[in-house]
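Support request, please re-run this one:
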Amino acid sequence: MRRKPLGHPTIRTGLIALTLMLSLWYAAGTPSVLAVSLPAFQKANPALHPFMGWSSWSAIRQKVDAHIVKAQARVMVARLKKFGYDYINIDAGWNIDAGGQQEYDRYGRPVPDPKKFPGGMAPLAKWLHKRGLKLGIYLRPGLPNSVYQANDPIFGTHYTARQIVYKHLKGNTGMTKGTKSYMLNFGCPGAMAYLQSCANLYASWGVDYIKLDYVGPSYRRGRRYLGPDCRSEVAHFALALSRCGRPIWLELSYNLNFKYAAFWAKYANGWRINGDIESYKKDLTCWKNVMARFKYNAKWVPYAGPGHWNDFDSLDIGNGKHDGLTPAERQTVMIFWCIECSPLCLGADLTHLTNGDFKIITNRAAIAIDQAGHPATPLSQKTPQQVWVIHNADGSCTVAMFNLAKRPEQVSVDWRQLAMAGPTATVKDLWAERNLGTFSKRFSAKLPAHGSRLLRITPAK
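Re-run finished. Output below.
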């Protein structure tokens, strides 16, 4: 379905000249990567701390609408905003109507389904901003087949949709089975102009966050990558966002290829290192999906820091037994997400937030570690009994102890492993806010199956 555009943001003077210059970095028929750094993007989108908020996908899926979004936002304002949660991110479905058709304006840009979001996104963004919250939306790379077939004009140019894509690379960019799209060809200035017009439109709505999904090349499965190489579009989209006049967080998804970790860190504020956390059954998630984060995260740690963060996906805690995790597992998830400085993006239905889960997702000590932005590294991952450590500037260590086994086990940390001078150290349980005393040489605790402890260990004076 198509209708008149919701806005006509002006493309900045000199954009066409800029894109002509950028096209010199491209071979005639093969996608290439933008060969320049983006200090402007990093300045426009500092992302000094992992973001905190809520995402619609885990609990709502594509049934999301303005009424549901506002209901979630009211809970966030009333109960969670004071702890740092402030993003309301609308995932897939915001521009899909009841018949499954995606909505685009006459320039081929995604726009909201008018029945789900009467008046468009701008009024919703204004409503959220008035309450101190931020708005996020969901996008996919490439040009959809319907826009290509309609051959829509590119806003502010004489180009059309069929002129800005690689026709010979037509195929599935990771979208729903059977949905085709075309990769943008940045050898044509109209491709950059298209992305810039999209970025300007989202900025005019008041968008604060964009999740770009199905970004490849992703992890290998067998001998094939999941999706084509979208690095060119990521780089150009980051450039467009740096010029849209509004700071917009750019998050990439999903299963991104570690080979290009330095690239993701240059052109995005965050990236998903794994597949979806959701179990896609009656529960939000499952322990198996949590374990995947322990397995693959360690090598990504050096690439996380101010401006760019490893994203473990939604924090699917909030609805009690419907989370799909035991109470011990929920605490472990919160501790691991926080000690690794992952964004804390709640996936549960906040209107059914349980008191027990509320205490977990608002643990002030854990949140402070997450927002400090210094991710932990493991002492060893050879056994299910693991210790992850942050070395603090004052000589203390923040320590997370995990028992990933199926039965209760003893977990220990030795002062020599922490490179601490002296035979004794004081131990504080940060999660429980309780001093445990002074210990000689090591600290040990018996943890339940999939259980955890969060500690601060300080050399005794």
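The CA atoms of residues 257 and 417 lie 31 Å apart. The radius of gyration is 23 Å.
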